[in-house]
Specification:
The two termini are 19 Å apart. This protein has five helices and seven strands, in the order βαβαβαββββαα. The chain has one domain (2-196): Maf protein (Alpha-Beta Complex), CATH 3.90.950.10. The protein has a five-stranded antiparallel sheet with strand order 3-4-5-6-7. The protein has a two-stranded parallel sheet with strand order 1-2. By secondary structure, it is α+β, with helices and mostly antiparallel strands. Helix 1 (10-20) links the parallel strand 1 and strand 2 (26-29). The protein binds inosine 5'-triphosphate. Inosine 5'-triphosphate is lined by residues 7-9, 12, 41, 53, 68-72, 85-86, 95, 98, 118, 151-155, 179, 181.
Amino acid sequence: QEIIIATNNPGKVKEFQTIFEPKGIKVKSLADFPEVSEVEETGTTFEENALLKASALAEHLGKTVLADDSGLEVDALNGEPGVYSARYAGTDKNDRENYLKVLTKLENVPDEKRTARFVCVLAVVQPSGKKHTVRGTCEGRIAHQPIGENGFGYDPVFFVEEKGLTMAQLTKEEKSEISHRGNAIKLLTKQWDELFLT
Ligand code: ITT
């Protein structure tokens, strides 16, 4: 069994592997299909972008494909960086530059106003054109400085209340249990048989 995920992000691939490989499901990503060119994420919602990415690859391969569009919503920044999370500090910038931009913008914001959430929308598109999306979230707060080495993206500055640690201090397994991506996968798994085997 295998699952094809329309992503170029190695951090996401690792997390999908953490969840699917123990179940004997092999995870393939865009790295396995170098002939496929990148899709422009022109949508204004996570749903739109996830569907854009999944549809393009499903059409190309003639197989059922999953895509993940995700990001960080900071309440004090009116939901920014949102769908622009991957390129918040600019298209040529890295994860660290992106989260430092968030920290700078929140410099004088007190703890109780630093609430935020990670959002992950998973889209499944079948060759028949049948489509479905699910949305998983994870609530937290923006830390005052980066802590931790694990994960990717904004994990070092995302403080998870119930653990008393940042996302980047959790192991892959601990993160998957509580993360937006883990929650979205749980939802999708629950609905899978009814959606795609009928
Ligand atoms: P693909 O489109 O190829 O999947 P991408 O990195 O461009 O890769 P997105 O457009 O969905 O993907 O952007 C997601 C960004 O949101 C990602 O680059 C991180 O900055 C952030 N993000 C998403 N999930 C995250 C997580 O679990 N931990 C930390 N940051 C995350």
